[in-house]
Amino acid sequence: MRKNNRVFSRSGLCLLLCLCISYLSFAQNIRTISGTVMDDKQQPLSGVSVVVKNSKLGAATNERGSYTLKGVPADATLVFSYTGYTDQEVRVADQSAINVTMSATSVDLNEVVVIGYGTSRRKDLTGAVASVQTSKLEKEAPRSVQDLLRGNAAGIIIGQSNPGNTARGDADILVRGSGTLKAGSSPLNVVDGVIFDGTFADINPNDIQSIDILKDASATAVFGAKAANGVILITTKKGAAGKPRITFNANLGIVEKAGMPRVMNAEEFLNWRQDYEVGKRTDAYLSQYPEMFINPRKLTNVNQLDWYNYDQKTPVTSVTEEQLTRAWLTRLELKAPEIENYLANKITNWQDLVFQKGFQQDYTTSVSNKNENSSYYFSLNYVDREGIVVGNRFTNFRTRLNLESKITSFLKVGANTNFAVRNEGFLQSEWGQSAIISPYGSNNLDDTASIYRRLPTGDATPVNPFHDNLYRDRKNMYNTLNSSIYGIITLPLGFEFQSNFTPSFTWHDYYNHESSKNPQWTATGGSTERTNEKTYNWQIDNVLRWKRRFNDHNIEVTLLQNAEKGQFWRTKATTTNYYGADILSWHRIQAGTNPFNESDDTYRTGDALMGRLYYSFKDKYMLTASVRRDGYSAFGAQNPRATFPAIALAWDFSEEKFMENTSSWLDYGKLRFSWGKNGNRDIGQYEALSDMTSGLHPYIDQNGKVYLFPQLYVNRMANLGLKWESKTSYNIGVDF
Description:
By secondary structure, this protein is mainly beta. The protein is 12% helix and 42% strand. The longest helix is centred in the N-terminal third of the chain and has 28 residues, at 2-29. The radius of gyration is 37 Å and the shape is globular. The termini are far apart.
């Protein structure tokens, strides 16, 4: 037993010794790393992310650029990253102090930029083009295309959503300001190389790969008659090589009002009423009736009884506090419900009632992949957003499918399709009323017997912001389908031919019923509108491209033939004064006794021819020239077509010999100049035609008897000379 005990003791001692040695070795391999991070000018960078690669261990630099990391393995690698600077990786090894100098990220001059009917390297651009790589903005959780552009592209003006459409998130876009007298000022939208007839609300921002904005006349002239206000080119995501990639993105948020003017509270409201009444009186009147409109509790120069008897036909010898208060509020012209609410100390903050913290949610899932012969990208998106106004809401379901397949070595086909269902039929409160309702107005929606249920003060205005929606039913649905089906043939000698067919459909249903149970609408017996609209547009683009390099000479030619057609149908039925109950609303519109029906069908066509030449010599001297000839059915018979030329020159002066010694402070510099002419056809489709209308007109015979006869007459004369609003512009710029 003793021998065995000694053997065991020796074995335990050896194990303990091994553990101690292992611990000491591990402790030596774990260390604390500290240091500073500077920029190119040796200024400290605050907020730089310092992370141990492939781990969750990390820190950030402070305002002095310093950082400290504890528990770092000796074989670790530190990753330094900061927005606008190139990432750096440093191995720890036996270091305990690691200082880093980070370099600002330079623009990739070989980055491919989308231009009209093609692409170009950024280095080769001759026009004014701004680009946004949306992959860098995904963490900002954009709600719309406008959010991607806002603050990220020079020369782009994005309006702010008003309180009525904050849930939808739409806002107007201007490229270099408004450039029109009477026509529309919105830029032309192009998605995946073809003109987009839909709205940006149909596009999921998570599906966008990049956005390029054409700003000067040379860059936009290839789109001719629709490009006077700039062009926004959107490229959606495609499949990536490797294993199938599944992505899920969820964004949840709260929105609330900000920067809105403050509305008077109850005390300020009464002070305003007092100032208003005093301001209407003459000095003689006010001296005869001193402190006429002052709160009787605050009188200084007159006793309450005398003050009360100012406007009493029969003076009294005693007065109660309630009588004094009622007299004061009556002099301030407050109405009966306001006076009663004041006495009961019932104050309503109407702003708090109509504004809310809106909950917004946005979910996107996508799957994509690419192999040698095909690629696909498929996404589903659901949006449900509340706005800052109670009742303001917007829902949207969007799906996108991008497919491309290589049939043979020279033939490639594909389709980019987007489908969306938007619900814009939610009823929001009349938030504008909240700024003009007295804080002492009655808010008693639940009291159906109250005469102040709709009109809080008893006057014809203002109206309770929530009342009318109790008797209103609405449906406002949009279904949109936008697609682009294309084929690309690679031909010998550097030629490529592409043909696109681009159909788009929009179905819009707007139903609205206002019930006769609303006292305001009882006289009309209820009213209903039922409108159905359908839009079908298509375009065909045939594009021939030729690219060839001859030593120092680089030539690219693009030729386009375009045809388009747009049709719109609308049927509208309205009625009032239902016989019997109007509870079925638009489900039985024929029950109304005052029906009114109308329809509207429109039709437009267009065509275009375009040619563009790009030439560069030694990649230093560049020329782009283009001309486009457009035809459009909306213009007068004397001017059915127009021509839009453009030319641009660029000089990469950083490649010249006299710039050889500037590499320490200038990597790249280019001077460019352009001139071009653009058109704007965003007018009514029948503005050039005479407008005829009909109506009943009186006829009086020689005996003075009046007859009513239907007549058809010209309401507007034809304008045969109507033509494009065109804009000529010059642009000069330096890129460096």
